[in-house]
Amino acid sequence: MAHPVWHEHLQLLSYFASVLGLYILVNSKQDESDDPDNTNHVLFSMTFAYWIVHCMAIAAQKSISPDWEIAALSLKFTAVFSFLLTFSCALSLPLHRISVRAKQTE
User: Fold this and answer.
1) How wide is the angle at C-alpha 62 spanned by C-alphas 76 and 77, nearest 5°?
2) 26: buried, middle or exposed (CB in 10 Å: 19+, 13-18, 0-12)?
3) Please, which residues have CB within 8 angstroms of residue 90's CB and are 6 or more apart in sequence?
4) Which residues does the chain have with pLDDT short of 50?
5) pTM of the model
6) Looking at residue 15, what is its pLDDT?
7) What does DSSP assign to residue 32?
8) What are the distances in angstroms from CA 42 to CA 10, 36, 45, 84, 94?
9) Residue 33, pLDDT score
10) What integer pLDDT is reported at residue 1 of this predicted model?
11) Which of 46, 100, 103, 104 has the greatest number of CB atoms lying within 10 Å of its CB?
12) 93, exposed or middle or buried, with CB in 10 Å at 0-12, 13-18, 19+?
């Protein structure tokens, strides 16, 4: 079964890319006065942070003993919730930009 192997490598790569993206966002020089850019910055940071939590929850599921049903179930819920939060933040980015442009044209 080659599927889990490349999927795990892709997930590991996305984890490190998210860590790098979050590091770049945290260390970037930015004015705090510009509200739309600050909102974009926060949404990007939240997206990367939630994806890191998702990748860690998936990795922890594979390393935990199947006898610990409560811990396994909580890790599954954590992975699902962090995936949904990542998706909602990623969806909010273009919607926020559309609303900012609509306000600017008024």
Assistant:
1) 5
2) exposed
3) 47
4) 1
5) 0.86
6) 96
7) S
8) 25, 10, 5, 17, 13
9) 59
10) 46
11) 46
12) middle
